[in-house]
Amino acid sequence: MTTATKDLYTIMHERKSVRKYDPSFKMTQAELAEIITEATSAPSSSNLQPWRFIVIQDDATKKELRAIANNQEQIETSSAVIAVLGDAEMYKNVEKIYTQNVVEGHMGEEQKNITISNTHRMYPHAPLEVRQNIASFDAGLISMQLMLIAKEKGFDTVTMGGFDKVKFAERFELPENQFPIVLIAIGKAAAPAFGSSRLPLEDIARFI
């Protein structure tokens, strides 16, 4: 079965958290851009798309990042590290997003204006913590989608939440409205990933 013919379930089960990468394997910027672009079809609260990305391919920068990411080897050996950020001021793009919705024929002008008005009434007045939680949740949706797309294209990934977020924000000079959420190493596996068990359905779900 080739990658192109694999179905979603196969990709889901074949995707593993890979921590050993071939450091000689290099992805192109175009390949990385395509994966992120495809992943942006993920849903988000009010379609405000609060995710932002820093794609780190430079070897010297990855070495710096490793020092603030608990010395995790995959930071340096992977082809790239995709830092997934959240934008707590996601509502500031509402006019751009919903104007484009009208241009693409997804809604009419009246619905656009109602949505923009509702967004301006709600989001700017929500506590910062609430807006950060929204952005973090939406970042989780696009991160999972990104990893599945990467696997479908023949690449391996692992997510990393264990890094110094304060130092990351300082090193990459994030504006106040943006904050780091997770790092995703991506590249080609140099060794098989460990398998992992899952709790049985009766331990995690109630049917009422």
From TrEMBL:
<keyword id="KW-0560">Oxidoreductase</keyword>
<comment type="similarity">
    <text>Belongs to the nitroreductase family.</text>
</comment>
<dbReference type="InterPro" id="IPR029479">
    <property type="entry name" value="Nitroreductase"/>
</dbReference>
<feature type="domain" description="Nitroreductase">
    <location>
        <begin position="14"/>
        <end position="188"/>
    </location>
</feature>
<dbReference type="Pfam" id="PF00881">
    <property type="entry name" value="Nitroreductase"/>
</dbReference>
<protein>
    <submittedName>
        <fullName>NAD(P)H nitroreductase</fullName>
    </submittedName>
</protein>
<dbReference type="InterPro" id="IPR000415">
    <property type="entry name" value="Nitroreductase-like"/>
</dbReference>
